[in-house]
Amino acid sequence: MSDTTKTYSARENRSSTEIPGGAREFAREFVGKFSRRLSRMVPFRPFNLKLERPLVSFTFDDFACSAARDAAPALEDAGMRGTFYYAGGLAGLLENGQEIARPDVAADLFSRGHEIGAHTHGHLDVHRTSNRAILEDMEINKRQIAELTDGRAPTSFAYPFGRLDLRSKFLLRQEFGSLRGIKTGVNSGIIDLAHLKAQELYDSSSTIESMNRLLDRVEKRPGWLIFYTHDVKRDPSTSGCSPAYFSAVVDLVRRRGLTVETVADAYARITGQASVAAA
Ligand SMILES: [Zn+2]
Q: What's the 123 CA to ligand 1 centre distance in angstroms?
């Protein structure tokens, strides 16, 4: 084979295997979308949940000062406690126009019986973050939460933005007992502890009547209903709710006599595993 032929062949090979930049980007986007969709459908930690009576949890993502100020006392007045997913990197900052609680607020909530869950330190979009960066960030998030909770490592996690893909889900499922997303629904039958379903509690998307109907369904077919919201204040954001609406839903749940627990306690109840772990 002459040098000329070799050169020609090399060029041919290169041009036949190289993918133009636009196509490469398209392929990456396609694989990413497929991975994200599949991660919501395929249970990584399937668990057959059989409940005689429904379980309800109230959860708060990020979390705003207003949730600590207005929602936590409403829960306490009803003898309930909530789960507050904490991203220390946001503490004291404005997120979507909401002031995010500082560490002392989280520590105070813990001392009153609420759970402080993990939410990454930097509020990461985990499907766009490398494994190494996720693990490094999670170490900070876990350590900070342990410092606020008498040395207890968090066992509950919520995916920031509700986003995940197969890789990040596989990685994070090993770090926590339960991981919650924002896929709407009630957890019943074969549930995925690595991607628990949840029900948003927003003034903008539900009414007290629709919540009443939802609770009817949950009582007919018992499951674990996990509410989530962000700010809880008058004139809430589109991803928050008003104190009046929040209290009304708490009251609906209370009058039905449903069991309300933090995510860690509910997880411990259904799996028979301890709800807290030493850091
Ligand atoms: Zn968040």
A: 6
Helix ranges (H only) for the chain are: 3-17, 21-41, 65-66, 72-77, 103-111, 131-148, 166-172, 208-220, 243-255, 263-271
Going from the Cα of 90 to the center of ligand 1, the distance in angstroms, rounded, reads 9
Distance 12 CA to ligand 1 centre (A): 49
Domains present along the chain, CATH in parentheses = 42-278 (3.20.20.370)
pLDDT digits (tens, 9 = 90+) for 158-175: 999 999 999 999 999 999
DSSP string spanning 152-201? EEP-EEE-GGG---HHHHHHHTTT-SEEEEEEES-B-EEEETTSEEEEE-
Residue 224's beta-bridge partner residues? 55, 187
Q: Per residue in 36-68, pLDDT tens?
A: 887 888 888 999 999 999 999 999 999 999 999
Task: Find the 36 Cα to ligand 1 centroid distance in Å.
Answer: 18
Closest of 71, 69, 59, 56 to residue 228, by C-alpha: 59
Amino acid symbol at 233: K
- Surrounding ion ligand 1 within 5 Å at CB are 61-62, 160
**What is the per-residue pLDDT across 216-233, written as a single tens digit (0 to 9) for each?**
999 999 999 999 999 999
